[in-house]
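Title: Prediction job returns without error message
Component: structure pipeline
Severity: low
Priority: P3
Assignee: unassigned

Description:
Job completed but the reporter wants confirmation the result is attached to the right record. Sequence as submitted:
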Amino acid sequence: MYQPISQIKLRPYQEDAISGLRHAYRQGRRAPCYVLPTGGGKSLVFCTIARSAIEKGNRVFILVHRQELIRQTCNTLNELQVPHGVIAANHTMTTEKIQVCSVQTLVRRLPKFRAHPALIILDEFHHARAGMWETIVNHFSGSRFMGCTATPIRTDNRGLGMNAGGICDCLIEGPNIAELISEGYLSPVSVYAPPGGVNLDGVHRKFGDFDKKEVAARMDKPKIVGNAVQHYLKICPHKPAICFTISIKFAERMAEEFRQAGVPAASIDGKLTAFERQKRMDDLQSGAIKVLTSCELISEGVDCPKVACAILLRPTQSLGLYLQQVGRALRPYPGKERAIVLDHVGNSSRHGMPDDIRSWSLESGEVSSKKASEKLDPIRVCQKCFLVYKAILDRCPHCGAVYQLTPREIQEVEGELQEVQKRYEWRVQRREQGSAQSLEQLAAIGKARGYRSPKFWAMKVLEGRKKKMALKEGKEIW
């Protein structure tokens, strides 16, 4: 028999979450969603709720979408000494009242389930608008639901709330990242950024994010901006790290580059067996490997608290994906003084700092910082130590370097982290560009800025000027 609930050690905010969810059901809610940042302990919250439900004789399904999440959920239930079954490939059906379900397996077996469980818990709830998840939800129309996610937002901008076509009728938010850091439940985070990152001009969007094939073509080069391996060795040498890439091929290439530099590394992807994937995760936790390179496999839900660094080599328009990836390094661990994010693709400039305060909405996929009328605080990058920090500060909080307000020329040296470009510097560059009249002068500017094809860029600038002049004079331009 498992322990009484009174013996479970819950954090205060986890107890508040359980009370808030109970209150929501008592008020007639059918599908509340609990939001808690990555590393905050969502699994313990919903496993505790599941245990309470079966104590009252109810049946509970816990839905997850990856083998790693099945294992993690089962481990939490085992720690709580709660008997449970697993509905997934290569698992025998059992009669326990709690079933941890693979979404892919359950959707195929739906005709076998006529009785509806009293409660269905959907982990990584932002996936609930996807096809298989919606099929399961519609099948079990007589059940109550509970969602859990760190990021209630989707790249397709579809909200999770009922008014937006979803099922969620109540949003319950736990503490944010900044609050969890201040309480010691997450590690302090430091972000470092390269000088502008990869050039994404002309890259199309697909399903709300950058087109993967187009991005992969630009990223997978012999030398990428910032040189990820050298930055890793310079800023956090041999710290356990996960490197997030845009493709399996690029993940394998990065793993090889780390190994060539003397850093034990391996890549992980969905082509590997579940056993091999878990072995590589275990090797990262044990220290047998130092860097694990990944393509879309361990961005969500994977618990590896020893990881101290997240290396971002996948540019994304998805705030949710950005926070999920950064969150892999935020869990505290003995000896980990801080989490480090090496942002080589400008995601921190697009989405803000990981610990920015954000307001979530059920009715659309949009998210804002603090209030809807406010914008994310602008950021700067220290020219000396390359730390990203809020622009409200006049000096770097790490090395104390004073930020110079006087506009100056920025030299972009390949492989070195430098200051992120500010708005007034953009105006300075525009004036510099406008003063250049010849192809050679423009090409020199493009070369100084580090453009991949400075002469081609210069030709396009001159072409644009000619078109603009032709329009002013009323001439045909084609």
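Comment from assignee: result matches the submitted record. Residues 23 and 298 are 33 Å apart (CA to CA).
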